[in-house]
Amino acid sequence: MIWGVLQFPGSCDERDALNACEVVGGEARLIWHEERDLSGVDGVVVPGGFSYGDYLRAGAIARFSPAMEAVAELAAAGGPVLGICNGFQVLCEAGLLPGALLRNQELRFICKQADLLDSEGATLSIPMKHGEGRYYAPEEMLDALEANGQVAYRYADGHNSNGSVRDIAGVRNERGNVVGLMPHPEHAVDPLTGSIDGRQVFEALEGFAS
Amino acid sequence: MPKARVLIRPKEGILDPQGKAVERALPALGFEGIGQVHVGRMVELEADDLEQLGELCEKLLANPLIEDYEIQPL
Q: How do residues A39-70 score in pLDDT, each as one tens digit?
């Protein structure tokens, strides 16, 4: 599988994302935000960072980039798209995922290891580092997400430090090919950094590659 | 060119930690009887046609899921 990793001005986790794609057995190349052509790429990672300085709102400007137009097309065609942290914010702003990310409840930037539960109830230890990671969606939307099985990752008990509604750390679209989460699986793929649970987040999307 | 001011504020009912932080700071400064503080954004701009500002707010200046906006022609 060949992954494309987007790079906006202000992205900062694209190198680790490239590495993670390769660790799980794929190939990966960087895609500059002005590139409109994703041919040859099976799936896309929208990485963390501060795209376009996060001016206005996190992810609000990045959604209008040429590369994001191409990502929207890939997503519509059923290709795998993974948004991490700022990438999750971008996918929400672009309307590819439901909900929005707000300033952390305590207004502090949070940087620590967190336990997540995936849809099957398995626990993943993955670092989080963000200032605007409080997932929010209106009640009726949350009910629909839960009914459709669209809550991809939740913070385990005691690990929801940003105040996300219903402990939601990550969501997927209805089809399941677009996933976004605030914690950083790309930083948890090598035993050197304490956990390799992040690999599962990448592997879970491989089935959507055509 | 016509000028306008756009006020963007968190939707009612959504936790507004910035507003809360301001509220919590007030007693220490001796301010009393002030509450329900909400912190938003203000955008000032000039536009040939102010009619297009609604669409601009929906698409870019505000996120309608979490924010309300108000357009004030100046």
A: 999 999 999 999 999 999 999 999 999 999 99
Angle at A62 between CA A7 and CA A30, to 5 degrees: 15
How many domains does one find in chain B? 1
Q: Which residues contact residue A80 at a Cβ distance below 8 angstroms, ignoring those fewer than 6 apart?
A: A42, A43, A44, A177, A178, A179, A205, A206, A208, A209
Determine, for residues B63 and A103 on separate chains, whether the beta-carbon distance falls below 8 Å. Answer: no
* Catalytic residue ranges of A: 85, 184, 186
Q: Looking at the complex, does the CB of residue A140 fall below 8 Å from at least one CB of chain B?
A: no
The residues, any chain, with a CB within 8 Å of residue A144's CB and separated by 6 or more, are A150
Cα distance from A27 to chain B (closest Cα, Å)? 35
Type and span of the H or E element at B17: helix B17-25
In chain A, the domains with their CATH numbers are 2-208 (3.40.50.880)
Chain B residues 49-68 within an 8 A CB cutoff of chain A: 60-61, 63, 65-66
CA A60 – CA A56 distance, rounded (Å): 7
Rounded CA gap, B27 and B12, in Å?
24
Q: What is the pLDDT of residues B18-37, one digit of tens each?
A: 999 999 999 999 999 999 99
Structure-block tokens of residue B61: 């200046």
Minimum-distance CB partner of B18 among A57, A107, A136? A107
Extract the tokens encoding B35.
């509450």
Q: What is the CATH number of the domain that holds B53?
A: 3.30.1280.10
End-to-end alpha carbon distance in chain A: 9
- What's the predicted TM-score (pTM) here? 0.93
Assess contact for A47 and A11: CB atoms under 8 A. Answer: yes
